[in-house]
C-alpha cells in the first residue's frame, strides 16, 4: 500500500512538472486519474516493490550522487587529456572486479556507475563479478573499484559488499 | 543581501554562456576522440565524455538561462533521465560486442592510426 501511494504521488508530481497546468479542473482530474491508473496497472502486474517505488530510501542516493558526479568529472578530465595528447599513448585493459554489492539493485547501480565514469565500461556482469574494459591502466585500481562498490552497497541500504 | 542577489542575476547569463561554450567544446573533443581512438571499446570511452560532462555543462547553461521556472525543472529531469539511461545503452552496446566475440586491443598502443581500426570490424 505504501509503495502504491508513493508511486502515485511521484507520478502526479511528474505530471504536474511536465504539463504545467494548475488551473483547469478537467485537466487536473485527468492527470490524477492517469497517475492512479498507472499505479493500478503496476499493482496488477505484481511489480510494486522497493525497485519500482524506491522513494522511501531515495535519501541514500542523494549522498551517493554528489560523490559519483565528482568522480565522473575527475575521470572526464583524465580521458579528455588522453584524447588531446599529440602523441597518444593508450594502455587498454580488461579486468575482472570481484568486489560486488549483494543486492540486484546494488549490482546494477555499481555496473552503471562504472559505465557512467568515462574511461571504464562494464562489458559483462554476473552474480559475483563484473568485467570492465578500461582505456588506461591507471583507471583499473582495485581500491577505486572496492570504494565504489562499498558506496553503492551503502546507497542500497547494505552493510558491507562481498569481498 | 538583495545587492548580492542582484549581482548574481547580472552574472547569470555570462556564467551560462561559459557553461554552454565549454560544454560544446567538450562534446567536440569527445567527437575527435571517437575518430582518433583505435578500436571499438576505446571509442566507447570517448563517447562517454560527450554523454556525461558535455551534456551536463550544456544543460547547466540552459538551466541558468531559463532561471527558476518550470522549464529549468524539465531540463533537470532531462539530465536525470540521461544519466540513468546512457550507461545502460553503453553497456548494452559493449555487452553485445563482447558476446559477439569482438576482441579488444590490449597492451600499450602508441600513436594509433585511424586506419588500424578498420581491421577490427571483421
Describe the structure.
The complex is a heterodimer of chains A (163) and B (122). Chain A is mostly helical and 163 residues long. Chain A folds into 2 domains: 2-44; 59-155, no CATH class. Helix content of chain A is 56%, strand content 11%. Chain A contains 5 helices and 4 strands. A 3-stranded antiparallel beta sheet of chain A has the order 2-4-3. The model of chain A has no long low-confidence stretch (mean pLDDT 86). Helices cover 75% and strands 2% of the residues of chain B. With 122 residues, chain B is mainly alpha-helical. Chain B is built from 3 helices and 1 strand, in the order H-H-H-E. The radius of gyration of chain B is 19 Å and the shape is elongated. Chain B has one domain. Chain B has helices at residues 2-36, 40-66, 70-99, and one strand at 109-110. Chains A and B meet through helix 1, helix 3, strand 1, helix 4 and strand 3 of A and helix 1, helix 2, helix 3 and strand 1 of B.
What share of residues are in beta strands of chain A?
5-15%
Our count of domains of chain B comes out at: 1
Largest interface, chains and sizes: A-B, 36 and 44 residues
Shape of chain B: elongated
**Multimeric state:** heterodimer
What's the total helix number of chain A? 5
Counted by DSSP, the helix tally of chain B is: 3
How far apart the termini of chain B lie comes to 65 Å
Number of strands of chain B: 1
Q: Rg of chain A to the nearest angstrom?
A: 20 Å
SSE topology string of chain B: HHHE
- List low-pLDDT spans of chain A: none
Q: Unreliable stretches of chain B, pLDDT < 50, 5 or more residues?
A: none
* Average pLDDT, all residues of chain A: 86
Range of strand content of chain B: under 5%
Biggest β-sheet of chain A, characterized? 3 strands, antiparallel
**What percent of the residues of chain A sit in helical stretches (DSSP H or I)?**
55-70%
Number of strands of chain A: 4
